[in-house]
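Example record

The entry below shows one chain as it appears in the dataset: sequence first, then structure tokens.
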Amino acid sequence: MTSRPNMLVNLQALRFLAALPVLAYHIAPHIWASGIPRGGWLHYNHLAGFGGVDIFFVISGFIMWHTTRDDRGLAAAWRFLRKRAARLYSGYWPFLLLSALLWYRYHPDLIPIKNWPLSTTLIPNPTGTTVQLDPGQLALPVSWTLVYEVYFYIGFAALVAFRRHTRVSTVLAILGVVVLAGIYAVYSGVFMPGRLLDSSLAFTLYLSPFCVEFLLGCLLGEWYRRRAIRWPLAWLAFGLAMAVLIGWVNARWFAGNLLLGYYIPQRVLLFSAAACGFVLWAVGLDQRGKAFLPRASLILGGSSYALYLSHTLWLQWFFDIGGRDWLARNGLTVPGYWLAALAMIIMAAAFYQFAERPLHRGFRRVLRA
């Protein structure tokens, strides 16, 4: 079945596919804690599956560039910010509320140590240190990625104010600055244990290596606009090959710890290449009008935000009510958790269709977006 290229159906499908290894990454420790030995694809996914977040960052840059290709000026920039705020907070605040309720019910002693202003606004204190970006500081730990997204939105809004023909050169200049800043930060010891969390936000947010992934997404958006993307299957093969290489490198040289904040520059260097391969595959197919199960792809892609935000909450709740121990006692750990994963996907899709979309429309009306 075919679909119009501007719908970016396959890119929506990629959003869902990127959320699945993140889901499996967080399920794995629960399975292993039940006595199931490490091994197989689940162990490999634990070495590279968290990179779904890096794919999200590249997709984010691509979509923002693609959807604002004809916008310019301060009014357009302000309109862009209102639209992105409506999209982000309408999907985020319901799960923040759920997170607060679960903390209150099962772990009230941890409530005082959470950074509730940051958890609510996703805007860090600019005079504070990097410790506020630690997922453990957040009421919803996975929302650390949204802190970067909000920063990307604000920066991109400034870019929208530029005239069209200057945007690419501006992005390239910023990319060069971020790369040079990352090199300096590595050699000056910013990304070192004992120093990282005490450093300012200069190199960990404003000039973070994660900005590279967002900026690359913008450049891919320009590539998509200007010329045909050839050999999408070859780009898919490249992305998969990079994912395999990343897993091997993580095991061989990082002892499985590439996820840690100390290795953000190395992580971005590896995962940005894989993410670009996957995005070029998806949009290359979109450019040709080729899409498989387009309606399902749009629903699942739309629900990937809810799945990402909710899955760790459900896993923690299942543990808190004794579900993990019950599965282990009855020898049902593996099938039980995969059924739970399926249930989380279905709930996310239902939430997206019947709650998130109406909330989004309401937020847009309030913000006049």
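Notes for this example: The CA atoms of residues 190 and 334 lie 40 Å apart. The radius of gyration is 20 Å.
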